[in-house]
Design brief:
Structural class of chain B: mainly alpha
Helix content of chain B: over 70%
Shape of chain B: globular
Radius of gyration of chain A: 21 Å
Strand order of the largest sheet of chain A: 1-4
Radius of gyration of chain B: 19 Å
Number of helices of chain A: 14
Number of strands of chain A: 4
Distance between the termini of chain B: 56 Å
Largest sheet of chain B: 2 strands, antiparallel
Order of helices and strands of chain B: HHHHEEHHHHHHH
Order of helices and strands of chain A: HHHHHHEEEHHHHEHHHH
Strand content of chain A: under 5%
Largest interface: A-B, 44 and 43 residues
Oligomer: heterodimer
Number of helices of chain B: 11
Shape of chain A: globular
Structural class of chain A: mainly alpha
Strand order of the largest sheet of chain B: 1-2
Chain lengths: ~350, ~290
């Protein structure tokens, strides 16, 4: 809440952006995003694309885990489903990429709903393990079945826009960032509708939600479907960016990475999902930069990069859960509050 | 298909299944006492094996001392984890707590890579190498011996729970925390004890597994099979963990011999999915009843 912002109608209170400053900042941010591919080097554009894809996927997982309270450790497998769908569509049909992405999301949503069926009987850890099981079975399918290219994986033909092939990272950037923006907007709006509110009710207390007349199975499956749709689209974009898909592209670690990003960003907060995705994608590269600084002092540093990265990854999960369970979104809110109240801080 | 071959495979499966059971007991111990699902159980087991490797490399220590020290170090690890990570999370949602253990698993893998590198290591042979004959069937000696050791350890744990005061306190805490508190049981100490005992059991299992198949930082994958075993058996049932561990071990061995190693995890997890559909709380688990 900003000082001097008084909501006078319900519409104002419900609006996504409640002050002109916010609107101005957002516009400035979009201009920056548009200028980015012309200013940054290829590597940073690559990172931005990766961040965009992760934002879509993490936002999807946040809908499921953060807002509906259903933990999934199989989210990466749905990304794999999306990636393989795009690869197969490009290979056999060659339809336009927008259509392919939607189909990728749709196929992932169908499989996600199927995986979500146990969610009515089991929850918490049992459900998490059931999703691991789904991920392992899907991984097995991708690794064994001949039509997805066996272990050699598949190559993906680049996305085409008006006959122009999008092969460079700065070209794919224009594909990924708008989709990510759209995904965020859709997710933010979802929680202003009755469906989104039903999800939150289920998270807070599923039995009370049922008493209130929310059909649990339908809404839980819907949550799985929406979240898997996001994952499928993210996986499809990933396929267009990397242009090759193998069963090893989306291991169990990716699922853990996505869940960690949700936790570190802040469960049940759209902004949190975005911040978490950005933070978790960039941490390994920050470490790489730190290592390049340390190399003159400790010549051994590059060899230690991989283990240190693993330790930092686990340490971040533990640290955030212990000390800042609401994640980066809460830190962001605190910073904002400080500036809004300044100089009248309490 | 030769029946002798089948028998040998089943026996080998029972051998590895006993290790699943031992680790499963460690898992159930923690879950029963603290209601924490420890996804890092595979990594704790791996740490036990690496502790052993570390103590062996100290030249003046005899082998048996290294084993004892490694098991003690595993217990210490369990205790420290409980005190530093799990105790502050008391009362948080179970999902947060199990994500903490996921993070812990990642940290442990990183630590192992930092100190020992990511290459495979072999432990010094301390298990006998003469093949064991059960009738006409041949069993690999390491597997037979580790089966016996695992059985002894599990029996030891069972006796402790049944008769020792601390074990009784642990069962009391598992049944009803509040009641246990008011009967004068020091519940936090029971928590610590459960984690220490589980750490020791996991370390023992890790040493046995490491001596059979060598050790590497990806050993923690074993934890996934353990997870399946304890869920099929029922999360809070020691007996369930024992039986399901043996069953999963045999199934993995048969499937691995018949179709190849890549089918193992797929089949065990398919069993898990079927189990979750039919009996969500496992063969011997307590059904949780929720009231509004």
């Amino acid at each position: 809440m900003r000082i001097g912002t008084a909501h006078q109608t319900y519409a104002q209170a419900e609006s996504l952006l409640d002050s002109n400053v916010q609107r101005f900042m957002l516009a400035a941010f979009f201009i920056l995003l548009a200028a980015f591919p012309y200013l940054a080097s290829d590597y940073w554009i690559y990172l931005a694309c990766l961040v965009g894809i992760n934002i879509i996927s993490v936002t999807g997982l946040n809908i499921l885990t953060g807002f509906t309270g259903l933990v999934s450790l199989g989210h990466a497998a749905f990304m794999a489903v999306g990636a393989y769908t795009v690869a197969l569509m490009e290979k056999h049909i060659g339809s336009p990429f927008v259509f392919n992405l939607i189909v990728a999301g749709g196929v992932a949503a169908l499989i996600g709903m199927f995986v979500g069926i146990p969610s009515l009987r089991v929850k918490g850890l049992y459900l998490a393990v059931a999703t691991i099981a789904a991920a392992i079975i899907l991984h097995f399918v991708f690794a064994q079945w001949a039509f997805v290219g066996r272990t050699g994986g598949m190559n993906v033909t680049p996305a085409k826009l008006f006959g122009l092939e999008l092969t460079r990272y700065w070209q794919v950037y224009w594909l990924i960032i708008p989709v990510a923006a759209l995904a965020i907007l859709a997710a933010a709006n979802l929680f202003r509708t009755r469906i989104g509110r039903a999800f939150i009710a289920i998270r807070d207390r599923d039995i009370s939600a049922e008493v209130l007349g929310i059909p649990l199975l339908r809404y839980k499956l819907l949550s799985f479907a929406i979240s898997s749709f996001y994952a499928g689209v993210a996986g499809g974009l990933w396929a267009y960016m990397q242009r090759t898909v193998t069963p090893e592209s989306f291991p169990l670690e990716t699922s853990i990475f996505l869940l960690a990003a949700v936790i570190i960003g802040g469960m049940g907060s759209i902004l949190g999902g975005i911040l978490g995705a950005i933070f978790m994608t960039l941490v390994p590269d920050m470490l790489k930069i730190a290592v390049s600084w340390l190399t003159p002092v400790f010549p051994n540093a590059p060899a230690l990069l991989a283990p240190v990265r693993t330790i930092v990854f686990g340490g971040l999960i533990i640290g955030f859960l212990l000390f800042e369970p609401k994640g980066l979104a809460e830190i962001w809110r605190r910073v904002r509050r400080f500036f809004h109240l300044w100089p009248f801080r309490k | 298909m030769d029946w002798l071959y089948i028998v040998e495979i089943v026996l080998a499966g029972l051998g590895s299944g006993s290790l699943l059971s031992l680790t499963g007991v460690a898992f159930v111990l923690i879950y029963k006492a603290t209601k924490v699902v420890n996804l890092a159980v595979g990594e704790m087991l791996m740490m036990g094996a690496y502790f052993f490797l570390g103590f062996v490399s100290i030249s003046f220590l005899p082998l048996w001392a290294a084993i004892v020290l490694a098991i003690l170090a595993g217990g210490l690890l369990g205790g420290v984890v409980e005190r530093l990570l799990i105790r502050p999370m008391l009362g948080e949602s179970p999902i947060s707590v199990f994500m903490v253990t996921v993070g812990l698993g990642s940290v442990l893998v990183g630590v192992v890579q930092l100190f020992w590198g990511s290459d495979q290591h072999t432990l010094p042979a301390f298990l006998p190498s003469r093949p064991v004959f059960l009738g006409p069937a041949v069993v690999a000696p390491k597997i037979a011996v580790s089966f016996v050791i695992a059985s002894i350890l599990i029996a030891f744990f069972l006796v402790i729970f049944r008769y020792w005061r601390g074990g009784v306190a642990l069962r009391a805490t598992a049944t009803d925390q509040g009641a246990a508190y008011s009967c004068g049981i020091n519940v936090p100490r029971v928590f610590s004890f459960a984690w220490i005992a589980a750490g020791m059991a996991a370390a023992a299992a890790g040493i046995l597994i490491g001596s059979i198949g060598g050790l590497s930082p990806v050993m923690g994958v074993f934890g996934l099979s353990v997870l399946v075993a304890v869920i099929v058996g029922g999360l809070d049932s020691v007996l369930g963990a024992l039986i399901a561990g043996l069953v999963i071990g045999v199934v993995e061995a048969v499937v691995g011999a018949q179709f190849g190693g890549e089918y193992k995890l797929m089949v065990t997890f398919s069993i898990l999915v079927v189990m979750l559909m039919i009996r969500p709380y496992g063969l011997f688990g307590t059904t949780e009843i929720e009231r509004l």
